[in-house]
């Protein structure tokens, strides 16, 4: 496998000072990637030639590996102020790298909630420090969202909150193609603070955008609460434990702007102004489900698109199943696809009810496979116009209140979507997608598909906090006869 570590000449944000560190991280990540890839099971001809095994997609043929004597390349992109975009997807962003179909990319991702406890999640980490840097004169990453750069609350207005690493261009990708993204590995980003060696941390915000907000029994009825969780970065423990929680108090950022609520991403929390409540959720073990809440390609409908509402090109789907071993299929909307990933989570339940998951920085390794439009007729991917999730045992289709809200809601879509979502609409979209999926991929009649949906398909609430609410439909592969090859 050909290796590529981002370097100063690549302009991927690696400086001479941290180049050695990045190279060591790359080789360590690659060792982990190779070890885990061997353990997944199954094989394909292309990966077998590399000495790597992983499960075969049920839909897609074996990928063609990248150029260069039939060898796939492996790229490593660290997360820092030069490699992330904060709060938006954009068809105008310059790609960090361009890869061939079948290549591998390891991308570091940072949670936008790291400054809830900077001592644990930022301190001593050069990449995180460069992104979250903020003094009285400048921010490491100024624009945070798609709003005005002179917005009172901060540049970008916080209209979009997720730190995304990318974009990555796929050579030859054009509108109408399908991008297959295989998640080969996901690992937590260990705290760089020596006091917390071997540990990673994440933040859960029960915030004003949560479904619960104002519908509580204890006073004050409207309150925002942050809970900090600890994760074992070595992988020996498969659960997270709460460390402490605190109520949000008005925070004054380094520019002097007061934030009475959580209204702008990355505001550093001054822990002298809050009360840490320890011994919360005592002896409760939260199962770890490392995954990426936000992942997808750039939409074509607008130049800058808020990272919060998900849509037909993916984005902030917030499904905990989008983790190691899963495969996502995305319809390509712009040249190169422009794949980005962020919003890393240590764990989340269906609904993400209170506002966030355990927001925890992660590193992921992905294989990117391009399916050209001309090759799709007669295949199950032929009519795919939405993000499809495949796991070893299941297919999951994602329904949204508005399947493509950017087109469905007109010129004011990025504002009006937040007032128009409902679970009913998302369920209707999930029903329609699953009906068509069963008819087109399994050859069922409409009557057969409708009956099967009621007795063998599970519909669940993906999330009710992202503006464009989500319902997923899950069907087990095992109920169908083997596909003919």
From TrEMBL:
InterPro entries given in the database record: FmdA_AmdA, TAT_signal, TAT_signal_bac_arc
One family name in Pfam for this protein: FmdA_AmdA
Protein's recorded name: Acetamidase/formamidase family protein
Species name: Methylophilus luteus
């Amino acid at each position: 496998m050909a290796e590529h570590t981002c370097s100063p000449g690549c302009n991927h944000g690696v400086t001479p000072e941290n180049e050695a560190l990045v190279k060591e991280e790359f080789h360590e990540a690659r060792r982990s990637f190779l070890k885990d890839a061997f353990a997944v099971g199954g094989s394909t001809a292309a990966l077998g030639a590399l000495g790597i095994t992983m499960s075969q997609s049920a839909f897609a043929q074996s990928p063609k590996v990248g150029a260069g004597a039939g060898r796939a390349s492996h790229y490593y992109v660290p997360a820092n102020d030069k490699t992330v975009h904060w709060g938006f997807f954009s068809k105008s962003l310059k790609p960090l790298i361009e890869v061939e179909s079948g290549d591998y990319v390891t991308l570091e991702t940072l949670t936008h909630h790291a400054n809830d406890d900077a001592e644990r999640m930022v301190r001593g980490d050069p990449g995180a420090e460069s992104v979250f840097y903020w003094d009285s004169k400048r921010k490491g990453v100024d624009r945070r969202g798609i709003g005005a750069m002179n917005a009172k609350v901060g540049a970008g207005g916080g209209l979009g909150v997720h730190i995304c690493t990318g974009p990555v261009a796929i050579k030859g990708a054009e509108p109408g193609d399908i991008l297959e993204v295989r998640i080969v590995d996901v690992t937590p980003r260990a705290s760089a603070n020596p006091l917390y060696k071997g540990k990673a941390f994440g933040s859960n915000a029960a915030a004003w955008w949560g479904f619960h907000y104002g519908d509580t029994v204890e006073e004050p009825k409207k309150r925002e609460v942050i809970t900090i969780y600890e994760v074992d970065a070595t992988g020996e423990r498969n659960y997270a434990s709460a460390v402490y929680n605190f109520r949000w108090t008005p925070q004054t950022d380094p520019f002097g702007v007061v934030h009475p609520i959580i209204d702008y991403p990355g505001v550093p929390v001054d822990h002298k102004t809050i009360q840490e409540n320890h011994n919360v959720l005592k002896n409760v073990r939260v199962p770890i489900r490392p995954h990426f809440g936000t992942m997808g390609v750039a939409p074509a409908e607008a130049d800058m698109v808020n990272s919060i509402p998900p849509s037909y090109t993916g984005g902030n789907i917030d499904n905990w199943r989008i983790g190691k071993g899963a495969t996502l299929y995305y319809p390509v909307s712009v040249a190169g696809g422009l794949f980005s990933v962020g919003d890393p989570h240590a764990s989340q339940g269906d609904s993400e009810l209170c506002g966030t998951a355990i927001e925890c920085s992660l590193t992921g390794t992905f294989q990117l496979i391009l399916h050209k439009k001309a090759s799709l007729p007669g295949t199950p991917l032929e009519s795919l116009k939405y993000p499809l999730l495949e796991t070893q045992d299941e297919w999951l289709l994602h329904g949204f209140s508005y399947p493509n809200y950017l087109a469905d809601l007109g010129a004011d879509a990025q504002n009006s979507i937040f007032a128009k979502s409902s679970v009913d609409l998302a369920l209707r979209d999930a029903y329609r997608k699953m009906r068509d999926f069963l008819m087109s991929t399994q050859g069922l009649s409409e009557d057969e598909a409708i009956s099967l949906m009621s007795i063998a398909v599970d519909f669940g609430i993906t999330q009710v906090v992202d503006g464009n609410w989500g319902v997923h439909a899950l069907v087990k592969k095992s109920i169908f006869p083997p596909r003919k090859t």
